[in-house]
Amino acid sequence: MIVRHVTLAALAATSLVSACDFRTAEAKTEKADVELGNAAPAFSLPATNGKTVDLSQFKGKYVVLEWTNNGCPYVKRHYGTGNMQAMQSWAKDKGVVWLSIVSSGPGKQGFVTAEQGAELVKAQKINSAFYLLDADGKVGKTYGAKTSPHMFVIDPKGSIIYNGAIDDTPMGDAKTAKNYVKAALEEAMAGKAVSVATSQPYGCGIKY
User: Fold this and answer.
1) CATH 3.40.30.10 fits 22-205, yes or no
2) Looking at the whole model, is its pTM more than 0.70?
3) Which of 112, 116, 103, 82 is nearest to 204 (CA)?
4) CB neighbours (10 Å) of residue 83?
5) What is the tens place of the pLDDT at every residue in 118-153?
């Protein structure tokens, strides 16, 4: 008789993959619309607090773009453990502007109205500077955002210096993973080249 041992990690991985449209390798075939070192595409989006936010208003500061979807298990893992909120607070303390962007279309997983988004920000104690709504997916498609989460870091000159996953551990403990976004910010702020400037984003496919 053959006994198969299934680890808790394997079960968790299977659960996450089956719970959403998981993307990693297949995303490699999609054409990116932005390039490292180039100017970050301009955009203007409504925020859940009723304001309209324009990327240009943050010129001279580091900016993090976080594509999110509150229904995605991978996003839930980061927010459920407080990992994403802690990163947002850390960035804020460093003077970094963190923008969370929802590109889910109406009727799709993760879509929220301004009112629903405001409630979500309050309930989950989200610490991003603004929670932005990209219901037609125009901004997400311009940036080539593939997954939730998918992260970009923009330097004070307005150039993209990081594009990819938030960390190196799709299925494990986010708190012990190598956080690519934090590393990119720390290196850039210290005047160093970003050692990992691109990585393969993981998570649920953006629900355009």
Assistant:
1) yes
2) yes
3) 103
4) 18
5) 999 999 999 999 999 999 999 999 999 999 999 999
